[in-house]
Amino acid sequence: MWNNAKALTRISNAMFLLAIAVLLGALFWRIAHMDVFSVRAIDVVGDVSNVTEEQVKTIVGNQLYGTFFTVDLQGTQTAFEKLPWVRRVDVRRRWPNALEVIVEEHRELARWGNTALVNTMGEIFEGASNRRLPVLEGPAGSNLEVTQNYFHFNKSLSRIGREVRSVRLSQRRAWRLTLDDGTVIALGRHGVVERLSSFVAVYERSVADLKGKVRYVDLRYVNGFAVQVEDKKRGDKRA
Predict the structure, then answer these.
(1) Would you state the pLDDT for residue 238?
(2) Which of 76, 144, 160, 187 is placed for a possible disulfide with 175 were both Cys, Cβ 3.0 to 4.6 Å?
(3) d(CA 238, CA 227)
(4) In this predicted model, what pLDDT tens digit does every residue of 187-196 receive, in sequence order?
(5) Distances from the Cα of 27 to the Cαs of 32, 34, 37, 195, in angstroms?
(6) CATH fold of 36-105, please?
């Protein structure tokens, strides 16, 4: 091989190109770590109301290191996603020395029992809210179903001027509502949306005519429903 001029030329060219690549790599590494390319700014954008300046400073102090070229975007994204109200984050470099953090926050819909909140997409998240929110409850993994039915129930009840204050799905898959006026409605386990719609359709010519405050409505009957009215005798009436 050493007597083969063409082979020696190819080896020489390859070694030359390798040397150039190593030099360029070293040069890029040096440039990438220069202080002039340090990250100078972090811009948090999006409809953000619960991510505080203090939380951002904590992430910057604990997570953000390196330069514009070497900063760990995935690590920074993960750190932001750990904040209680953050649903989704996208972190991007913005030339020459800034990061853009696009944040999507949870939009609280209700409380999930006494332990967490649930957003408008039916996802449970940890967070604190001072707002008066409805309460949703159900077995593990039922949060999406409960949220969807909450919307259905509220839509039906709006026709009679009522709102849902709580929805409870039991372990036996039985549904129970509490309305804004304190009325409790037992829906049972099957066809609950349809049962409530049928009740609302006859409400004005049945329950609305009863004297006294309606305390309890049982819709688990095949034909009709039972109503308990609070009056002096605390008697029960059926409709």
Answers:
(1) 47
(2) 187
(3) 5
(4) 999 999 999 9
(5) 9, 11, 14, 73
(6) Ubiquitin-like (UB roll) (3.10.20)
